[in-house]
Amino acid sequence: MISRRNLIKQLSAMPLVGGLFTTTAPLLTASAAPALAARNVIKDLGLRTFINAAGTYTAMTGSLMEDEVMETIQATSREFMMLDDVQTKVGEKIAGLTHAESAVVTAGCFSAMTLGLAGVLTGMDQKKVEQLPHLEGTGMKSEIIAQKAHNIGYSHALTNTGCTIIQVETAEEAEKAINERTALMWFLNIQSDKGKIGHQDWVALAKKHNIPTMIDIAADVPPVENLWKFNDMGFDLVCVSGGKAMRGPQSAGILMGRKKYIDAARLSMPPRGSTIGRGMKVNKEEILGMYVALDKFMARDHQKEWKMYEDRVAHIASTVKSIKGVTTETFAPELGNHTPTLRIFWDPAKINLTTKALQEGMRNGNPSIEIVGEPNGISLTTWMLKPGQEKIVATRLKEELSKATV
Ligand SMILES: *Cc1c(COP(=O)(O)O)cnc(C)c1O
């Protein structure tokens, strides 16, 4: 006897045979799903697809979900569930994997920050939840302390709650900035080499004054251990993107940390309305897809993958270096998008090509390829490539660079 779960799995693997099962599984209608699958909306809408040698850029739709994630999304789309049940069960699993007390799937890292702060501000007070983002006269705290070097665009996620950012540079300044209005001390991992105060000192300082801490590690996985490192270190809330290297849904992320803050954050989340988070809905398919993506990511052979990305970079580097005047540099950023990265430079006396012209040549070629423009050359990564695409990227780069040889 075939179980319903396996039936759903088989059906999603064989979209055209749906009709055979209409008597045993009437909800899985034969017509709707296969017809949609057969319709090529990419072509119908004239959308450009491309080989992504750039990286996990939001504008380029992040990353590609793996089959297991898409199968989860498809299979779970055929049943109703209570949204809160899904979040609770998934949250428990994610918390277990990441050494956190609790976790919840949010609409990306940005919304994890807004919602996590909302939880800190309101606690379990329903009235306060409805008052956000208007803080005046409510008794809620209103200031976030952040290092000046960390205060780049993403802190807007925090000011969305009505709070203001108080910038500091030294530990002394941070300590002086703490007062009865201080709600949170926020840390941005990707800028941690720019600020004067390190992770541990930040947490210690906050603990000394009983202030909750939050860290944004949006693009800082891999390394995989970052998924639990900052929970272990004592940050009260950790926010990460789901749709970057973890290859979950692009519109998903994770808020993890202290249970009391996660419980409170959920008061500002769907299905509850009259909240600042009502528009940050994540559907059950993506919540479950995010869990599967995380689980799968943690189980991967990260060393083997690293080697594969390195080999691809090496192939592209050796191909373009055969052109006179081309030099390359291979490195991996320590912070943010930690993956083998290739920079390509050329001598303008030997190759008459601007960075922009090379980018456009690659973009307008067939197949279209996206690379990153840098001040004196281009850079690329190979982790978003499908197997074999590194050969196409190498060949196309060589063509474009050779064409411009003087
Ligand atoms: C990508 C990114 C975000 C936003 O994350 P989303 O998952 O797209 O909401 C926030 N902070 C940093 C440092 C990022 O790189």
List its salient traits.
406 residues; alpha/beta; Aspartate Aminotransferase, domain 2; Aspartate Aminotransferase, domain 1; 2 domains; 4-stranded antiparallel β-sheet; 16 helices; 13 strands; globular; disordered N terminus; binds pyridoxal-5'-phosphate
Oligomer: single chain
**Rg (CA only):** 24 Å
Mean pLDDT score: 92
Number of strands: 13
How much of the sequence lies in strands comes to 5-15%
Name the strands of the widest sheet in spatial order: 2-8-7-6-5-3-4
Task: Kindly state the percentage of residues in helix.
Answer: 40-55%
Could you give a quick summary of the protein structure above?
The protein has 406 residues and is of the alpha/beta class. It folds into two domains: 81-298, Aspartate Aminotransferase, domain 2 (3-Layer(aba) Sandwich); 302-403, Aspartate Aminotransferase, domain 1, CATH 3.90.1150.110. Helices cover 41% and strands 15% of the residues.
